[in-house]
């Protein structure tokens, strides 16, 4: 795989835009991811240029004359299908999932509904609104439970509620970010993530990464800005459980129509080693702390080659009309 990528003629990609920054709460991380991708593509001789949708308009994007773009945006307005729809309208092939899969993957509640229909194991949940009986919620999900915004990423706005009296504040925090509030059963166990590359029947899972965060808190700070979190890749798991988790991750990825690349977060319950899938990221981080590059390295795919492989998959998804051809060997 690596040799094939290195032998590609970089000119086949044309003028490439790397989209990063944006307007979401994850802008800071996107800037780091995007700069990493930009330098990686340039190192392979690709005519890559930065573009920040947070400071430039779609008219500016159209005027750049990009032949394809690499989406390194995280969160709203970049990972939620809105930008993907604009790129379809502009006829610019792009990396990652299309409009529908991006939108569904960004919404944790809709994702859970689809996963449950497809038999993908995920923790019990409830959607909270002003009429929700909080005592009944606690009785259903138990304590502790997790309250999170369904449309945010990078652990933003998540509260672990250990006491009934904490619920109102946790819900108010999420309500300040999203119209909906997601409450989820807390699963005690080990934390893992599975990177997936490809599309449809060709989608494949990379080695599993285990995340061991200080005091079990894999929050925004411990994800991106400390060296205290430990990562084990491949994760030390029995072969049978490894294969089971990877199958679940690929099924979850396919269930919402993901393509190109993604990352599925998983908890394995301590009491019975049963896996539960939490969410799918359709535009994962590409920083030095990010987990998709880590998983790729475990099978001999370097950071630069990973970026090139993802870029090769850039295409229009809406019937592929007017799409520019994919790079060929």
From TrEMBL:
UniProt-annotated catalytic positions: 26, 154, 290
Subcellular location: Cytoplasm
Primary subcellular site in the record, as a coarse category: cytoplasm
Superkingdom in the source lineage: Bacteria
Reactions catalysed, as given in the entry: 2 D-alanine + ATP = D-alanyl-D-alanine + ADP + phosphate + H(+)
Keyword rRNA processing in record: no
Pathway named in the protein's UniProt entry: Cell wall biogenesis; peptidoglycan biosynthesis
An individual GO BP term: regulation of cell shape
Entry's EC annotation: 6.3.2.4
Cofactor, how bound (note): Binds 2 magnesium or manganese ions per subunit.
Pfam families on file: Dala_Dala_lig_C, Dala_Dala_lig_N
Gene Ontology CC annotations of this record: cytosol
Cofactor(s) demanded: Mg(2+); Mn(2+)
ATP-grasp domain ranges (all copies): 112-312
Single GO MF descriptor: D-alanine-D-alanine ligase activity
Keywords for this protein: ATP-binding, Cell shape, Cell wall biogenesis/degradation, Cytoplasm, Ligase, Magnesium, Manganese, Metal-binding, Nucleotide-binding, Peptidoglycan synthesis
Amino acids binding Mg(2+) 2: 279, 281
Binding residues annotated for Mg(2+) 1, in chain numbering: 265, 279
Job description of the protein: Cell wall formation.
UniProt family annotation: Belongs to the D-alanine--D-alanine ligase family.
HAMAP family in the cross-refs: Dala_Dala_lig
Protein name, per record: D-alanine--D-alanine ligase
Gene assigned in the entry: ddl
